C-alpha cells in the first residue's frame, strides 16, 4: 500500500484505535463504577431527548415532499379533503347495499364523542332530497342561460329547440311528462325549464362532478356494478387530536358491526389510529421475535445465562442512545423507522458474540480472566471496531438520502450499531469480571461444523474455486434480469384497511387505469381560469388525437366566454322566442302565468347574454352540484388553483413526453400522477443510491485499508460481498422479487454489513501461523456464522412484516447476508488454503 | 321526494283493492287498520286506469287512460295510452320511466326508505295509533266507504281521498297537493291474485 502514501496515516489511525481499545479495557477494569454511572447518565440524557421527539404515522411523510409531482399530489389531497375526511367503502350484495348504507349513515350521524356529534356531516347521496329546491334553482338558471351550459357540440340541438316547431315539440313533451309522472311531481322542474334544455346540460354537469366511475342513475356514490358504495364523513375535530381520533375510530368500529356488507375505512383519522396501531404491532412483533431468536441462538451456543441476559441491556443502550442522539437533530421520527430496533438487535448482538466467543475461547485455553477480556477487547476489538465502522458508515451515508424512510433508518441504524459496540465493549467486561472465577471450568465451545468446513474447503479448494467462478457467472446473468418495481402501493402494508380500500376503488371505481392531474395557479379566480385555458386546449387536442380516454376540466363543465359566443352564433334569432313560447303555451293549455319568471328571463335577453365564468361558477357553487366546482377550482391560502384531470389507458399517452409538451405549452402548469411521483422518486432514489454506494464504498474501503493495509484483506472482506450481492440480486430475480425504492439501498448497506464477515476471518486467520489457522478459523468462523444468523434474525423479522417497504428490505438483506456469509465461510478458507499450497 | 311520497301513497291505496267495506262508521285507526288487513290477502292485481290531472301550471285538464299492475313484494307498473303514452316501472328502489314508445329510458335508484319493500313493510304492521301529525276521516255511505287521509304538514301532499266499493276494491283515488295540483284516478276491471309474473313488469 506504499503507492497510496498513506501508511503513516493508517499506522496512526490503527494506533489510535488500539489505544482507545486499551483505554476501554483499562477503565472497565479499574473504574467499573464510573462506567456504570456514565452509562446511566447518558441513558437518562437520551431518554430526555427522546421524550421531546414527535412520532409520525403519515405514510406520505416518508417521501420527499419538495419534489413537484409529490408536492402537487399532497396539495391535491388537501384540496379534495382527503387529508381531513373519513371515507367508508361498503362492498357487498347490490340488493342490500343501499339499505346497509342508510343504516351505517344513521349510526354515524348519531355517533357522539365526548357528548358531541362525532361528524360534522356524513355524505352518501349525490344530493339530498332537502336540496331539491336548490337543484331546481340551478336548472332554472341554466335553462335561462343555455349558452353557458350546453356543450358546444349540442349547439345545433339547442338551436332546433328554439324554433317555433322546436318549442311546440318541447311543450308536447312536457305535457307527456306531466301526464306520465306520479301526481304533480314534474311541476317544479317544468316551470324552471319548460323547453327541457336540462337534457342537454345535466349530463355534462353530472359527469364533471364524478371523480370516480359511478352509476349516474343512482342517488348514491355507487359503482357502476352496484357493488361498492362510498360514504364520506367529516370528523368534528382534526386528526391532530389523537384522543378524539381514537374514540372516533372506536365508534366507527362499533357502527360497522352487524352490517350485511363489508365496510372498509380510510382517511387521516383512521390511518392515524388503525395504521399507527398496525405499525406499532408490526414493529413490536419484529423487535420481540428477533430478540427471542437472537438470544436463543446465543444461549444455545454459549450456554451462559448472564451474558445472554446482558445482550438486551446492551441493545437497549444502543437503541436509547441512537434515538437520543437522533433527537438532537431530528424533530420527529416516523414510527416505521422504529423497525430499526430489530436491525440493531440483529447487528448489535454480533459484537457480544465476537467478544464473548473470543473470551470463552481464551478461557478454555487456560488464559486468566483479565487477560482473556483484554484479548477480546483489544485484539478482537480491532476487528470489531473496523467491522462496526464499515457497517455504520454506509448506513450513516444514507442519512443524506432525500427519502426520509431511508435517511431516518440509515441514521438510526448507523448510530445504533456504533453505540451497541461501545455498550458491548464497556458493559460486557463488567459482567464477565463479575460472574467469572479463576477456577471456573470453560468447556470447549461447539465448532458448529467449522473444523469440518476448514478441512472440506481445504480438500476441495480447486473445485470450490471453479464452482465459485461458474456460480458468479450464473448469478451475475440472473442478476442482470432483475427489474424495478416503481409502484408505491407495494410499499404499503398489504393488509391495512387503507390498502384494501385503495384496491377496491381501483377495481370498481376508477375512471381509467391511468390518470394525471394538471394544476394552474392564480392570485385570483379569474387569473386561474384564464391561465387554465391553454391546459384545456391541450387536453382537448390530446383527446382529439385519441391520446386520452377522457378528460375533465372546467372547460368540460361550463362554456367559457368564447364558447358561449360560438353557441350564440349557432342560434336562430331569439327575439321572438318569449312571444312564441307564451303563445304556444296558451295554445297547448298551459297557464303562461306559471312560467312568468322564465319568460321574463327570456324577455330580458338571458339567452343572448354571455356570462362571466365567475357568475356561472357562483351558481354551481350554491347548487347540489357544487362538487363539480370543488373538484376543478380550489382556493387556499396560496390563491386559486384550476385543476384538469386526464384519463387514459396504459400506452395511450406517453407521460414523460406529455410532461415535456406541457412544459413547453404551459410552463407555469404543475402536473402529478402516481406514475410521475414514482418516476420522480425513482430519480431521487437512484441519485441517492449512486452517491451512497460511492461514498459508502469509499469509506468502507478506507476503513479496510486502514485496518489491513494490504489488498489481500480488502479482497477477503469485499470478495464475499461481491459474491453475496450478485447472488442476492440473482436470487431475487429468480424468485420474482424486484428492486424497489427501499430495498435498493440494501446495495449500499450490504457493503458494510457483509464486509465484516471476511474481515473477521481474515483478521484472525491472516495473523495466525499455518498451524494455528484452523483454530483461528474455527473461532472466527463460528462468530461469523452466529453473527450472520443473528443479523438474519433481525432482518428476517422485517421480512415477515405486513409493510412491503420493510419486508422487501428484510428479504433482500437476508439473501445478501446469507450468500455473503456463505462466501466468507466457504470460499475464504478455500482461497486461503489454495494460496497456502501455492497452487 | 314529492314524487316518491305520492308514489308510495298511490301504491298503498292500490294494495287496498281487496278491502271489504264494513257497514259502520270507522275510527281513524280502524280505517287504517282495515286498509292494512286488506293488503294481507293480496299477492297481485291489475286494473284499467283513468287519470285526470288538474295542474296549477295548466289551464286544461289532462285526461289519460292506461293500465296498472302490482305484485308483492315490490313491483309496480303503469302504462298510459296515447296521446300521453309512457310507462313507469318500480322495482323496489329502482324507478324506470319511459315517455312515448321510443323515448329515452330514465332510471333512478331511490333510497331504501322510499322503496316499495319499505312501504309494504310499514303497512304490514298492525295499526294501533295514527302517525304523528296525520289525520284520518272514514265514513260509510251505503255501499261506499270514504277514507280521507291528511298527512303531517311539511310535505307536498295535502290530502288523499279514497273511495272503496262494497267489495273492498278502490274505485277512486284523489290526490290533492298543497300547490293546488289535483289528480283523480279511477279504476275499472280490477282483478286480484291473477298470478302475475316478472314478465309482466318490463319496460319494452
Topology:
The complex is a heterodimer of chains A (839) and B (204).
Chain A: H1 7-30, H2 32-51, E1 54-56, H3 68-79, E2 86-91, H4 97-110, E3 112-113, E4 116-117, E5 119-123, H5 132-144, H6 146-149, H7 155-161, H8 164-180, H9 187-192, H10 198-208, E6 221-222, E7 228-235, H11 242-255, E8 262-267, H12 268-302, H13 305-329, E9 332-334, H14 340-364, H15 369-397, H16 404-435, H17 450-459, H18 461-479, H19 497-508, E10 514-522, H20 525-544, E11 550-552, H21 554-557, H22 561-570, H23 577-587, H24 596-603, H25 613-621, H26 626-632, E12 633-636, E13 639-648, H27 655-665, E14 670-672, H28 674-708, H29 711-734, H30 746-767, H31 770-799, H32 804-836
Parallel strand pairs in A: 1-9
Antiparallel strand pairs in A: 2-7, 2-8, 3-4, 5-7, 6-7, 10-13, 10-14, 11-13, 12-13
Chain B: H1 2-14, H2 28-40, E1 44-54, E2 62-71, E3 75-80, E4 86-91, E5 94-99, E6 105-109, H3 116-123, E7 135-141, E8 144-150, E9 157-164, E10 170-177, E11 182-192
- What structural class results from the helix and strand content of chain A? alpha+beta
What is CATH's topology name of chain B?
outer membrane lipoprotein receptor (LolB), chain A
Largest interface: A-B, 34 and 42 residues
SSE pattern of chain B: HHEEEEEEHEEEEE
Largest sheet of chain A: 5 strands, antiparallel
How does this model look, in words?
The complex is a heterodimer of chains A (839) and B (204). By secondary structure, chain A is α+β, with helices and mostly antiparallel strands. Chain A has a domain at 129-208 and 514-648. Chain A is built from 32 helices and 14 strands. Chain B is α+β, with helices and mostly antiparallel strands. Chain B has one domain: outer membrane lipoprotein receptor (LolB), chain A (Clam). Chain B has helices at residues 2-14, 28-40, 116-123; strands at 44-54, 62-71, 75-80, 86-91, 94-99, 105-109, 135-141, 144-150, 157-164, 170-177, 182-192. Chain A binds chain B through residues 98-99, 102, 125, 129, 132, 173, 175-188, 190-191, 215, 217-220, 222, 589-591, 594-595, and chain B through 1-3, 6-7, 10, 51, 53, 55-60, 62, 64, 80, 83-88, 93, 97, 99-100, 106-113, 156-157, 175, 177, 179, 181, 183.
